[in-house]
Each structure stands twice: as structure tokens, then as C-alpha cells.
Design goal:
- Helices cover 12% and strands 53% of the residues.
- The protein is mostly beta strands.
- The protein has a 17-stranded mixed beta sheet that branches.
- Strand 5 and strand 6 form a beta hairpin.
Length: 280
């Protein structure tokens, strides 16, 4: 009986303690980095469980990273410990750069922690908000948790996954794959003329707005899986198969003379397709 009693106490104690933890102290710090990177490569970004990611293409042959880190803890001493360990690391090569967030969610990148580091700090909440400037002729791969996503001026392939996001993404060329668990997606295809092969944009729960240049030639598949519907304001979209009419939740269409395949799907929400109106 004694052993059973001790086990029950051991299990119950952390649960009670967690319920009483508060984080009255807050701190915002900024960490930066800048290094050369030539066009034609790939930049991979792994974000924090909470935090935004903004990527901007530029004419400079370099990557510039600005990370605004927001920390919360019980006291200033704990904030000092967290500030020293939370941030990002890079893995650099001539053709690929990886930017990875390190924090309590991934055991601070498996760093060897100081001997006096309190294990309770592994539960302290934090967020990292990135602004990353990259050469415009590169490919981008992003994995994020909950936070805004913005991609502009990148003239390469794009792949991005977020659990929960309000995303604004410009698609210029290459292949684009974007998946959001929930949130909203505002997608526009460059006014310069889309030069890509395909795009596949998915939102599980939320709304999607797609803005297309009126000169576009592409095959378009639009689908709402459960509740919601499609609102089409793009002129001159025609069924690819004249025997398959558009419905409130499904469109198999052709813009112009057809071409690359654009797929847009929403699990639950509205899907709007409209002409691109500059400026955005």
C-alpha cells in the first residue's frame, strides 16, 4: 500500500503544480544574422510553435535574418536563462541553408544545458517572429506552427506548411505548395505573369482568396469539401469539359488557352477567385 500511495503522490504533484504556474515576467529580445548566399539554392525555415514568418525576395546575394523573440517566465532570472538559449541556428552550404528555431519545444536544439538549468523552464511559453530577406531567385521551404505567414518577391518554388495561419503569399514562378490546417490564405499570382508549372493550395478550415492576372492561361481545379462554397468573380472561366458544369463547391475550369494546373481546395469555408487588382 505504501508503494501505491507514493506513486499516486508522484503523479498528482506535477499536475497540481502545472495548474498553479503563472508567468508574470515578460521580455522581448532580437537576434540577427547575415551571410552570403547566391541565387539558385534552397532556404529552409523551421519556425517556432508560435510566431510569424515573413520572407522577402531581394536583389542582394545574401540572407538576412531578424528574429523577434518574446519570452515569458516566473521571474527575471528565469528570463535570463531562457534568453541565452532560445533563438535560431543555421546550417549553411553553397546550395542550401537551413534556419531552425531552437527553444523548449525541441530541447533547445539538443544543446547541453547548464547544470543549474531548471526543468520547469521547459514549460515556459515563447514565440519567435521572423523577417527573412533572401535572394529572389531561390526556392523556399517553410514549416510553422501558429502565426502569420508572408512571402513576397520570391521567384522560385515555394512549399509551406502551417498549423494555423493567416497567410499572404505571392506566387511568381516555379511550383507552389501551401497547406494550412486552419486560418486564411490570400494568394495572388504575379502581375508580371505567372511562369510556374503547378500550384496546390489547401486550407483545412477557413477562407481562401485567390487573385489571378487577367492574362492567365491555366487549368484550374477549385473544390470545397464540406461546408461553404465557391465565389467566382474571374472573367471568362470556362469548363474544361463542356458536359461538366460548375457547382457551388466544385469547378474544373480553363483560363485562357489552358496550361499549368492550379489546384485550390478548402475543407470548410469560402473559396473566392477574383482578378488581380494592383496594388496589393
Amino acid at each position: 500500500m505504501r508503494k501505491i500511495f507514493l506513486i499516486a503522490i508522484t503523479i498528482a504533484f506535477p499536475v497540481t503544480s502545472l495548474a498553479q504556474i503563472t508567468y508574470p515576467s515578460q521580455r522581448t529580445i532580437t537576434k540577427t544574422d547575415r551571410f552570403d548566399f547566391r541565387p539558385g539554392g534552397t532556404v529552409m525555415i523551421t519556425g517556432a510553435p508560435n510566431g510569424s514568418i515573413e520572407v522577402m525576395g531581394s536583389t542582394a546575394n545574401e540572407i538576412e535574418i531578424t528574429a523577434r523573440i518574446e519570452l515569458r517566465a516566473e521571474n527575471e532570472s528565469d528570463l535570463d536563462a531562457l534568453a541565452a538559449l532560445t533563438g535560431f541556428v543555421t546550417d549553411e552550404s553553397p546550395i542550401r541553408t537551413v534556419i531552425m528555431t531552437v527553444g523548449s519545444h525541441n530541447k533547445f536544439g539538443e544543446k547541453k544545458l547548464p547544470k543549474n538549468f531548471a526543468k520547469r523552464l521547459m514549460l515556459a511559453p515563447f514565440s519567435v517572429n521572423y523577417v527573412v530577406k533572401v535572394p529572389k531567385y531561390i526556392d523556399i521551404e517553410i514549416d510553422g506552427g501558429k502565426g502569420d505567414l508572408t512571402i513576397r518577391g520570391v521567384e522560385g518554388s515555394i512549399r509551406a506548411n502551417f498549423l494555423d495561419s493567416n497567410a499572404r503569399v505571392e506566387i511568381v514562378s516555379g511550383t507552389a505548395v501551401l497547406a494550412l490546417g486552419k486560418g486564411s490564405a490570400d494568394i495572388w499570382f504575379s502581375a508580371k505573369g505567372w511562369r510556374g508549372r503547378s500550384a496546390n493550395i489547401q486550407v483545412g478550415e477557413g477562407d481562401m482568396t485567390v487573385r489571378l492576372p487577367t492574362t492567365l492561361s491555366a487549368d484550374i481545379d477549385a473544390l470545397v469539401l464540406r461546408s461553404g462554397g465557391i465565389e467566382n468573380e474571374f472573367p471568362d472561366l470556362k469548363p474544361r469539359d463542356r458536359k461538366v458544369a460548375f457547382t457551388e463547391r466544385s469547378m474544373s475550369a480553363k483560363a485562357g488557352v489552358g496550361g499549368g494546373t492550379l489546384k485550390f481546395s478548402v475543407g470548410q469555408g469560402k473559396l473566392r477567385i477574383e482578378p488581380l487588382r494592383a496594388p496589393l
